[in-house]
């Protein structure tokens, strides 16, 4: 399956979650067996040469892709979650969103000093959440090899913001607009 066929499996929903937004919904791609396989294979081809120690996925669709990618690479998987979702001791980071603040957390001690991390999410838009996740991982002493996304919305500048912060990025698909 080529990139155009993969892109065709992504559903665009206008005016969600608010007017003027073109929401890129990967659930239609995930539901297609060949599409999911091609997506994970494409992400694995990008990630494999990096020789990561672990895959870290950002809530929530980053869990789906991150776990599948970790399996394909023969690695473990660590979730970065919203507050109050992980049992036991956590470490976290607060960050600013366009209309407020949020927080991300992971289990304390799960990412050790020098752990070579591949950060995964389904989509990069403005980059706020991915930047916060990258900072949280750095604070744990991780070496962030790459932030990898199924979809980039380049007009929103998220990848550029990550790269300006010293985070290498890659995405399999790109869609114009917001």
TrEMBL record:
GO MF, one term, reads: adenine phosphoribosyltransferase activity
- Enzyme class, UniProt record, top EC level: transferase
Cross-referenced Gene3D superfamilies, in alphabetical order? 3.40.50.2020
Where would you find this protein in the cell? Answer: Cytoplasm
Ranges for domain Phosphoribosyltransferase: 52-143
Q: What does this protein's UniProt record list under function?
A: Catalyzes a salvage reaction resulting in the formation of AMP, that is energically less costly than de novo synthesis.
Full protein name:
Adenine phosphoribosyltransferase
This chain is encoded by the gene named apt
């Amino acid at each position: 399956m080529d990139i155009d066929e993969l892109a065709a499996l992504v559903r665009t929903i206008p005016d969600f979650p608010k007017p003027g937004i073109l929401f890129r919904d990967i659930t239609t791609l995930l539901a297609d067996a060949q599409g999911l396989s091609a997506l994970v294979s494409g992400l694995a081809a990008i990630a494999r040469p990096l020789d990561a120690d672990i895959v870290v996925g950002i809530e929530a669709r980053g869990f789906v892709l991150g776990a599948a990618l970790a399996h394909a690479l023969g690695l473990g998987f660590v979730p970065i979650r919203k507050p109050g979702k992980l049992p036991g001791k956590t470490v976290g980071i607060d960050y600013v969103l366009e209309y407020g603040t949020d927080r991300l957390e992971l289990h304390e001690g799960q990412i050790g000093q020098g752990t070579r991390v591949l950060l995964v999410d389904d989509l990069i838009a403005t980059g706020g959440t991915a930047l916060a996740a990258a900072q949280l991982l750095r604070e744990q002493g991780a070496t962030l090899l790459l932030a990898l996304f199924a979809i980039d919305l380049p007009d929103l500048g998220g990848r550029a913001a990550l790269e300006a912060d010293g985070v290498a990025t890659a995405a399999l698909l790109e869609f114009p607009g917001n």
